[in-house]
Amino acid sequence: MQNTHGPMATEPLLPINHAAAALGLHTWKLRRAIKAGLVPSYTLLNSRRLVRLSEVVAVIEASRAGGGNDQCLRGMGT
Fold first, then answer.
1. For the chain, which terminal residue's Cβ has fewer other Cβ atoms within 10 angstroms, N or C?
2. How much is the pTM?
3. What is the mean pLDDT of residues 55-71?
4. CATH number of residue 63's parent domain
5. DSSP E strand stretches across 1-78
6. How many domains does the chain have?
7. Under DSSP, is residue 64 helix (H, G, I), strand (E, B) or coil?
8. Residue 76 lies inside a defined structural domain of this protein
9. What per-residue confidence (pLDDT) applies to 5?
10. Is 45 exposed, middle or buried (0-12, 13-18, 19+ CB in 10 A)?
11. Which domain holds residue 52?
12. Would you state the torsion angle of the CA atoms of residues 59, 63, 66, 68, taken in this order, to the nearest 10 degrees?
């Protein structure tokens, strides 16, 4: 049974390398942001970390707007 409630209900979880490629980022920058706790990640049945694209974009937008002093996101959206 699928959860169909809320805005994140239908958004797929992507591997880090796919999300980074979709946003034009280096994979290591996204991994560093995840390790620092700035971007949420999910691990399901295996050890692969997955992310939601909208959550990564939200963190990039917040860092552009001066929402924090996070060093590992500097230049992430450029």
1. N
2. 0.73
3. 80
4. 1.10.1660
5. 14-15, 42-43, 49-51
6. 1
7. helix
8. no
9. 55
10. exposed
11. 14-68
12. 80
